[in-house]
TrEMBL record:
Tree of life domain: Bacteria
InterPro entries: EvaA-like, EvaA-like_sf
Domain (dTDP-4-dehydro-6-deoxy-alpha-D-glucopyranose 2,3-dehydratase): residue spans on this chain: 36-238, 260-460
Protein name: NDP-hexose 2,3-dehydratase family protein
Species, as recorded: Streptomyces kaempferi
Family annotation (Gene3D superfamilies): EvaA sugar 2,3-dehydratase subunit
Length: 463
């Protein structure tokens, strides 16, 4: 049975959850901490969690090695993740057959945010967490962000704080609980459990944690590289609290396409696309070269797999080494929005990515690294990319945000929300105009919106 986003009553009687979240979103200053105190706390955590990350040759990796037979890069424990090859055949796009390295991490991790009332206002327990791949060290993270290998202690380090809140929630505490995918171009069938759990006054914030209102978190979403990817995806799984009050929210009762039509479209795109993927030895990935310092594409495109050595004062293990995937170039993830008969709609694309479990998920209007397409004819470049770049100056939202720093090094994208004119068209059957209310409904289920689209849902709600 598909995991669902559950809206359940809180432990104490009171207003409905959506009304309480709206009240929390309205508190943009104050709460348990003032905004100045939040920024000072983040600066302090940055100093306390100083980490040193150094590129090293693969031979210097501790506990990792290339398999002599396949060339796959694996951890000695057989846990965490591995880097292997993937062969892809598809029926669409300018390139229909290719092979590539891909991260294989079959474990399902937990990304969870604890929710607690202070004077009747819900607050989110957010963590200041450093990751080796972050461009700036500490970013704002969920209460819990852990792989199964980490929270079961495979690394031999200290326990993950607050983990029991999410592994064993009490009756009526679960607000959201849904399996969601991660980057389908870089991960093979990767999923994490996205959770929000209500807690009581027995849960207090440790040094690396702070209780923030939803309004404060929404303000921080407007800062470059501050709210991390894992926090953004969990935030998107909250029920939409806006209830038609904000200037970018529609009447939930009307949309260009009915919910049934949208679900039929997604199912049809999944059934009609022919995408065949097969794991292969990394050594057999055509067009990819392994040097002492990187697994890299022969044309210098896409991404590299590199090795890093890490020392950190703020992690369960103080020092380790690991591979990271490092993209070539800055990404663009742009969501076009417009009003149709006065109702806001967003333009989503049904994307097929090789690592998706269900072939197709809905992504933003534009999602790419432009440099990877510069060698192709104009007709083979991503639809709407030129319009997105031309309209950046008028974007309602334009923030540089990092992807997951535990697996990716210096991976950043320009996330944009661009309001267009009412006659702006959907270019092909790959695209549909959906209301925020419809996106909220799709987020109740697994594998419908990809991680980039979920970030933009969280951003859209913050405006």
């Amino acid at each position: 049975m598909t995991a669902m986003n559950l809206v359940l009553p809180s432990r104490a009687a009171g207003p409905p959850l959506v009304s309480r979240l709206a009240a929390s979103a309205a508190v943009v200053e104050g709460g348990v901490m003032s905004n100045a105190e939040v920024l000072a706390w983040l600066d302090e955590r940055q100093r306390e969690q100083q980490q040193h990350v150094e590129r090293v040759p693969f031979a210097a990796l501790r506990g990792w090695r290339f398999d002599q037979r396949t060339g796959d890069l694996r951890h000695d424990s057989g846990r965490f993740f591995s880097v292997l090859g993937l062969s892809v055949h598809s029926d669409f796009g300018p390139v229909r057959t290719w092979s590539q390295p891909i991260i294989h991490q079959p474990e399902i991790g937990i990304l969870g945010i604890a929710l607690r009332d202070f004077d009747g206002i819900p607050h989110l327990l957010m963590q200041a967490k450093s990751e080796p791949g972050n461009v700036n060290g500490v970013q704002l993270s969920p209460t819990v962000q852990a792989t199964k290998s980490n929270y079961t202690g495979v690394h031999g380090g200290s326990a993950v704080p607050y983990m029991d809140l999410f592994r064993r929630p009490g009756p009526g505490q679960v607000v959201a609980d849904v399996l969601q995918s991660e980057q389908g171009s870089w991960f093979l069938h990767k999923r994490n459990r996205n959770m929000v759990v209500e807690v009581g006054p027995e849960v207090v914030a440790g040094d690396d944690f702070a209780w923030l209102t939803l309004g404060q978190v929404n303000l921080l979403l407007r800062h470059d590289n501050l709210v991390n990817m894992d926090a953004r995806t969990v935030l998107s799984c909250l029920p939409d609290w806006r209830g038609g009050r904000e200037n970018l929210v529609e009447d939930a009762g009307w949309s260009l396409h009915t919910g049934r039509e949208v679900r039929t479209w997604i199912t049809r795109r999944r059934a009609e696309h022919e995408v065949s993927v097969a794991p292969i030895p990394l050594a057999q990935a055509q067009g990819w070269l392994r040097t002492q310092h990187a697994v890299t594409h022969c044309n210098g495109l896409y991404f590299d797999v590199v090795a890093v050595d890490v020392s950190s004062r703020g992690r369960e293990v103080p020092a380790w080494s690991q591979p990271l995937l490092e993209p070539r170039g800055m990404g663009v993830a742009a969501l076009f929005v417009k009003r149709i008969d006065g109702v806001v709609h967003a333009l989503l694309r049904a994307r097929a990515e090789p690592g998706f479990l269900d072939v197709v998920e809905l992504g933003p209007t534009v999602q790419c690294v432009p440099e990877n397409y510069e060698h192709l004819p104009e007709a083979d470049r991503p639809p709407y990319l030129a319009q997105a770049l031309a309209r950046r100056e008028s974007a309602r939202y334009d923030v540089v945000l990092s992807e997951e720093g535990g697996r990716f090094r210096n991976a950043q994208s320009h996330y944009m929300i661009i309001e267009t004119e009412s006659d702006f068209p959907a270019m092909s059957d790959e695209f549909r105009w959906l209301t925020p209310h419809q996106l909220d409904e799709l987020l109740c289920y697994s594998h419908h919106l990809n991680v980039q689209a979920r970030t933009l849902v969280a951003a859209l709600r913050s405006l």
